[in-house]
Hints:
Elements: H1 4-29, H2 33-40, H3 44-50, H4 53-64, H5 83-94, H6 97-101, E1 104-106, E2 111-113, H7 115-131, H8 137-158, H9 168-172
Antiparallel strand pairs: 1-2
Amino acid sequence: MIPIKIKEHLDNYIHQEVYVQIAVIKGKEKISTKAAINSYFNSNHFRDLSEGRPYDHFIDGLNDKCLIKLVDSPMKDKETNDQVIQELQKKLKELSSDDLKNTFWEIETGEFVNKDQIKELELERDQMIKSLDLKDKDIVHQVLVDFCKKYEELCSLKYPDAPLPLEILKNIN
Length: 173
């Protein structure tokens, strides 16, 4: 199972990126949120999203952080008070060579994943790609509204007084 911190981090990143792009279109073109979402369908950003590129980029980053690559790092034995680095050092010392080859470090969250969890991320990517197939624009529109809604919910918690340009939550409530 994908660690919750990693799942939330990736979801929040994708939701924010989609929200910002749609908000920019809405502001530039002075149109409704619905029209901005429909306009977003024609953007390079949507094309990249619908091809799973945010997931691919994230997964590539994980693959670059395979712990076996750090086994000879001078950081391995360096004194530090940083708890994340201490945890990394502990893993480098305790895990077998095979386990190090199957352990990947996600820097933003400090979490570790294995190849099976990376496969789960690939499955999530594939599901997102299916959900963004423009054969049914109404479904895709709803998926994007849901992304924007989740981003506004996050913003409402973190910054309760901040204005939200799409006002998705206002329109629902």
